Amino acid sequence: MGVIIIREMVGSSPRSWSDAARQAVATASRTVRNIQQIEVVKSTARVENGEIKDYRVELKIHFEYEG
């Protein structure tokens, strides 16, 4: 393992926190190679009329530097 770069992202989903994390990884993997792991920093949700409408996760994506 060489140098690991860490970037922060926020993923969202109307289904669940785990789906929000999956959405963030899927989006990041379109432009970032060698994603090694993620770290969920914070989980939140947007509420309307007493119901959860949107799950959100703030996460750090760790990927290996190719230089």
Oligomer kind: single chain
- Into which percent range does the helicity of residues fall? 10-25%
Share of β-strand residues: over 45%
Structural class: alpha+beta
Low-confidence stretches: none
End-to-end separation in angstroms reads 13 Å
CATH architecture: 2-Layer Sandwich
Q: Tell me, what is the CATH class? A: Alpha Beta
**Count of DSSP H/I helices:** 1
CATH superfamily: Flavin-binding protein dodecin
Radius of gyration: 14 Å
Specify the biggest β-sheet.
3 strands, antiparallel
Mean pLDDT over the full residue set: 96
Give the SSE order as H and E letters.
Answer: EHEE
Task: Tell me what you see in this structure.
The protein is α+β, with helices and mostly antiparallel strands and 67 residues long. The protein has one domain (4-64): Dodecin subunit-like. The chain has 1 helix and 3 strands. It has one helix at residues 17-28, and strands at residues 4-13, 35-48, 51-64. A hairpin with a 2-residue loop joins strand 2 and strand 3 (51-64). The longest helix is centred in the middle third of the chain and has 12 residues, at 17-28. It is elongated, with a radius of gyration of 14 Å. The mean pLDDT is 96.
